Amino acid sequence: MKKTIEKTAKSVDEAVELALSELGVEKEDAQVEVIDQEKGFLGLGTKEVTVRVTAEVDDESATDDVAEDDDNDVYYGDDESFEGDEAGEAEDAAVSFVAEVLSGIGIHGKLDSYREEDVIYITVNGQDCGAAIGRHGETLDSISYLTNLVANRHSEERLRVVLDIGGYRKHREEVLVSMAHKAANHVLRSKKAFVMEAMNPAERRIVHAELQGVKGVTTHSEGEEPNRKVVVTLEE
Questions:
Q1: What is the DSSP string of 99-138?
Q2: 140 with 201, same domain?
Q3: Which residues are within 8 A (CB) of 167 and not within 5 positions of it... i.e. 6 or more apart?
């Protein structure tokens, strides 16, 4: 079936990559339309870009995904009897905090969590999650920060909470990996350094880690937060 989605990001390439990742298609199999470009101060530069991407998607595959999710539904917000699967105190506290925050802003969906060593993974899937993600994931980052504080108040060891809402972090990571390899290929072809867009520390770590295994290039970061950027250069 034909499906159309809209995505907003800092650049056309990033918005398109987000849309393609969600649709599960390649760029050559999709129709891309730039529908809005928010200009910067005095009309200089571009602050945000919104694109509309249309493509044929596998309806059967989409149905299978929904069925698979339904087998593992864990509802939050309305089910006071939910206790989790033998989760520890820190995980319980973190999950309860996320559920309370999302319920407070009117978002209800499916929540799942698990712990792997010193990391607690929490995922939330549901409709209309945009309010919990925010522009460029800023609201999601804030909720993640507070959830980390809550979890560590209930643990003697240092824990890290990885929170993903509506698949945003997964899609964003896929976009960053794609952008990283495009930057590396550009450097290898042109023999010139390539400066990527400004990213937060977690996003920069993804790029650095992804390009560690690419022969011929190296990476470092330049600039001050929040405008610190990854620079990809030829390996000496």
A1: HHHHHHTT---EEEEEEETTEEEEEEE-SS-HHHH-GGGH
A2: no
A3: 22, 125
Asked whether the whole model's pTM tops 0.85, one would answer: no
Domain range spanning residue 36? 2-68
Query: For residue 109, what is the domain's CATH number?
Result: 3.30.300.20
- 205-231 confidence digits (pLDDT tens): 999 999 998 999 999 999 998 889 999
Token readout for 93 is 């506290």
Q: Would you say 4 and 53 are in contact if contact means Cβ atoms under 8 Å apart?
A: yes
Check whether the bond before 201 is cis (ω within 30° of 0).
Answer: no
* 110 neighbors 126 (Cβ within 8 angstroms): yes
- Mark out the alpha helices in the chain (DSSP H runs): 12-23, 59-70, 89-104, 130-133, 138-153, 168-190, 201-211
> What's the token pair of residue 47?
């602050």
Number of domains in the chain: 3
The pair of three-digit structure tokens given for residue 160, joined into one six-digit string: 């890290």
Q: Which residues contact 124 (CB under 8 A, 6 or more apart)?
A: 76, 98, 102, 107, 109, 110, 111, 132, 163, 164, 165, 166
Give the ranges where 38-88 is alpha helix by DSSP (H).
59-70
Give me the pLDDT at residue 38, please.
57
